[in-house]
Amino acid sequence: MDIYRRIGIVCRNIPRGKVATYGQIALLCGKPKNSRQVGYGLKMGLAGEGIPAHRVVNSKGILSGALYFDTYDMQNMLLENEGVAVVWTEEGFKVDLKVYGWKNTMEDALYLKSLFDRAKKEDIHESTEPGYEG
């Protein structure tokens, strides 16, 4: 299973009203040094459809996904609709990671791993269907 599918799985599991950082998502995907790849995958739509990308911020809590959204303040509005307080700073719109950051646990990481394993098995099953010529 590729990194982008893992990114999609992790992002779908960020709780409503919480945010995660690009680095946090990369770590949960098993690629701790690939935070830029997380951003790229979200921006280019490689992580799938229906991804709550508005819940992903940079390591300082700054909303940095403006290119992903139709308007520059869309991420801000989506987060505020979920009860996340967003403030304007000199660096841009920002959330308090101490308050709104997803504090994932070992149980969360193990659950995500089980989802990765299940998705990988589905990939294998799909690729071994009758008529597969791969």
Explain this structure:
It is a single chain. With 134 residues, this protein is mainly α. The chain is built from six helices and four strands. The strands form two sheets. A two-stranded parallel sheet has the order 1-2. α1 (3-12) packs across α3 and α2 (22-28) crosses α3. A hairpin with a 2-residue loop joins β3 and β4 (92-94). The chain is globular, with a radius of gyration of 16 Å. It has one domain (3-127): Winged helix-like DNA-binding domain superfamily/Winged helix DNA-binding domain (Arc Repressor Mutant, subunit A, Orthogonal Bundle). It has helices at residues 3-12, 22-28, 35-43, 74-81, 97-100, 106-127; strands at 20-21, 56-57, 87-89, 92-94.
Explain briefly what this protein structure is.
The protein is mainly alpha-helical. It is built from 6 helices and 4 strands; from the N terminus they run αβααβαββαα. The protein has a single domain, classed as Winged helix-like DNA-binding domain superfamily/Winged helix DNA-binding domain (Arc Repressor Mutant, subunit A), CATH 1.10.10.10.
